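Incident review: delayed structure delivery

Summary: a single-chain prediction request sat in the queue longer than the usual turnaround. Root cause was a stuck worker, restarted by the on-call engineer. No data loss occurred. The affected request and its eventual output are reproduced below so the record is complete for anyone auditing the incident later.

Affected input:
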Amino acid sequence: MREEGPGPACDPRQPGDALWPEFKSAEDLEIIRRQDLRAYAALYQQDPVHGSTVEWPADLFGDWIWTPAEHWPRKFKYRVVCVDASKGRSDKQGDYSAIVFMGISVEDLLYVDAIVERIPLDQIVRKTIVFCDQHKPLHVGFEAEQFQELLVHEFRRQCADGARWPVYMMRCEGVPKVARIRRLSQYVIHREFRFKADSPGCRLLVDQLMDFPLADHDDGPDALEMCIRLPQGLCDAMERVSPLLPPWRQW
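Output delivered after worker restart:
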């Protein structure tokens, strides 16, 4: 596909025109680009370097992703908070801890708020409880690799009766972090995420998404993927008991 900017004088096409529309139309190429930027760049633009830089193009992170406080939904069909403490053996020194909220609106958009900071281990649970008091999730998930599952027990203890929010240990099951974060692709490509505009944590989370997989840190996207995975996993478990249960998007 002809791209913006100057091109060779022998190419009469306008930007956006396909080279061989009988083989792949501009519409077909745009679908491929949205589904897999790297394959599109390498196979159809002869530019594998561009495709290997970042996972998602910058135009998927326009101003429309930011939601000011006055437009933040009052009600959600589903609410979840997930925590990536980044204190496991495989995490890098200086990694951020990420506490991420995701709410599914009546329009099926995914609204996100986040705390992405370097948080001392003894403060993570308290910050999570305060964050949950603010957002009132239906479920809470903690990454539970190595000793991090101890945070789940501490969370339950500090919640006193343990009945404020159901809490779940979430394990990676051997799936690499990059592969897990790539599960967000369908939601990024279809422009379903909305981020809280006045949240410094969301600003950092979006920066990490835009630089993925080249960013020095990806703790925010990792916790966001957990927010997607937890309700899907709960729905799958319930469907094994009741096949008539609607998909999680319809909760």
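Verification: The two ends are 41 Å apart (CA to CA).
Action items: add queue-age alerting; document worker restart procedure.
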